[in-house]
Amino acid sequence: MLMPASAFAQTPALEIDHVSHRYGTRVALNDVSLTVGQSSFTVLLGLNGAGKSTLFSLITRLYAIRSGQIRIFGHDVAREPGAALSKLGVVFQSRALDIDISVRQNLMYHAALHGIASSRAKELIAQVLDRVAMADRSLERVGNLSIGQMRRIEIARALLHQPRLLLLDEPTVGLDIKARADILDHVRGLSKEEGIGVLWATHLIDEAGAGDDVVVLHKGKVLAHGALGDVVAGCGGVDLRDTFNRLTGTADRNELETAR
């Protein structure tokens, strides 16, 4: 049954509802709830080990959801995986391109995995490469690209099947300051101009901007969630770094990074 257009427009891109996850006796996520709206850029901010990658693994069904619910545009990931995941694009922290073949060959292979016909795939590849300003590198061997350029190709690949929600797990690791800024600007543009909901996971404090929503995840728990300014004001913080330190405790004061 198709959702009415008016209802679809009001449906969050992503809903995490009371999700918990354990590795044996270790609690990785503890009753996590958060929402990512359509056309919103949400920063999932936490130290390494906070549970960000575990949450992404649950959203993408790499791990089974044992407690709670996850919905993508209203589709339950566990009960309607096809409908849910068809609207999802993902850029994982680890590199996932074949460096020995061309950009175009990588994207054609990904299109085939999504069941996209060859003729249509060629059209979509041209579109997504243009969107990430890499149209002139389609025949280039991936191994010849810079790390920043590879990240752009991974974003293009994630957009190939035209998703409405984009997850990025520590996407700027290993990039220099300019490349980081370029990737951030580009993904924020996708969110604003094309209505894509974005969940951007990072441990870098300066990747959260004034217009973003922020989720502070610490030791598997959501400590704050809302517009960046509201989160800071609600904690009486000077800025986001001060707010993070207030929420998590002084023991973690030096662990949250600013990229250099």
From TrEMBL:
Q: Which GO terms describe its molecular function?
A: ATP binding; ATP hydrolysis activity
Entry keyword set: ATP-binding, Nodulation, Nucleotide-binding, Transport
Q: Which residues form the ABC transporter domain?
A: 14-244
Could you tell me which Pfam families the record lists for this protein? ABC_tran (PF00005)
Among NCBIfam families, the record links this protein to: PQQ_ABC_ATP
- Family label: Belongs to the ABC transporter superfamily.
Function description: Involved in beta-(1-->2)glucan export. Transmembrane domains (TMD) form a pore in the inner membrane and the ATP-binding domain (NBD) is responsible for energy generation.
Protein name according to UniProt = ABC-2 type transport system ATP-binding protein
